[in-house]
């Protein structure tokens, strides 16, 4: 028996189909992706580590408890509805929307209660709105 040594076959890998598939995927993702510009609300946050600002005596104060109960200038309101808060602010401000308005809320107050207070203030035309913060406790 005569054994012949066979030559090693040369292996060629054709990259053309691979490149075609990659380009097709790239085109698919570019076409199927939606490019939307999301709107962002710009908010200027107060500095919590600065000195405590002195308030003018004519300022209105909205205090929101942990349960979401409103109190305007120390007087608790009968319910937590926006109309009640609006009536109280309109009464105490006597139509003067240039008065500063301060919202003080407990740290565990529901977010909706704070948003409702801000919304009511905006509907009435108050532009000098501030939210109280607390200085961090230094150890």
SSE topology sketch:
Blueprint: H1 16-32, E1 60-64, E2 70-72, E3 75-76, H2 82-93, E4 101-105, H3 111-124, E5 129-131
Parallel strand pairs: 1-4, 4-5
Antiparallel strand pairs: 1-2, 2-3
Helix pairs in contact: 2-3
Q: What would you note in describing this structure?
A:
The longest helix is centred in the N-terminal third of the chain and has 17 residues. With 139 residues, the chain is α/β, with parallel strands linked by helices. It is built from 3 helices and 5 strands. The protein has a 5-stranded mixed beta sheet with strand order 3-2-1-4-5, covered by helices on one side. It has a domain of 72 residues: Nucleotidyltransferase, domain 5, CATH 3.30.420.270. The mean pLDDT is 80.
Specify the biggest β-sheet.
5 strands, mixed
Tally of helical runs: 3
Please provide the ordered H/E string of secondary-structure elements.
Answer: HEEEHEHE
Low-pLDDT residue spans: none
- Rough outline: rod-shaped
Which fold name corresponds to the CATH topology of the domain at 60-131? Nucleotidyltransferase, domain 5
- Give the strand content: 5-15%
How many extended strands?
5
* Radius of gyration (Å): 33 Å
Determine and state the CATH class of the domain at 60-131. Alpha Beta
Structural class: alpha/beta
- Terminal Cα span: 94 Å
Helix content: 25-40%
Average predicted confidence as pLDDT: 80
**Spatial strand sequence of the major β-sheet:** 3-2-1-4-5
Using the 3D structure, state the CATH architecture of the domain at 60-131. Answer: 2-Layer Sandwich
């Amino acid at each position: 028996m005569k054994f012949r040594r066979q030559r090693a076959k040369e292996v060629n890998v054709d990259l053309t189909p691979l490149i075609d598939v990659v380009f097709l995927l790239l085109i698919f993702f570019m076409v199927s992706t939606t490019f939307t510009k999301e709107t962002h609300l710009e908010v200027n946050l107060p500095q919590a580590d600065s000195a405590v600002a002195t308030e003018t005596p004519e300022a209105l104060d909205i205090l929101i408890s942990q349960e979401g109960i409103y109190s305007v200038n120390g007087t608790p309101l009968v319910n937590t509805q926006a109309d009640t808060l609006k009536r109280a602010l309109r009464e105490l401000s006597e139509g003067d929307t240039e008065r500063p308005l301060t919202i003080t809320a407990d740290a565990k107050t529901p977010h909706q209660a704070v948003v409702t207070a801000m919304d009511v203030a905006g509907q009435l035309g108050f532009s000098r709105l501030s939210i109280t913060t607390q200085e961090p406790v230094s150890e």
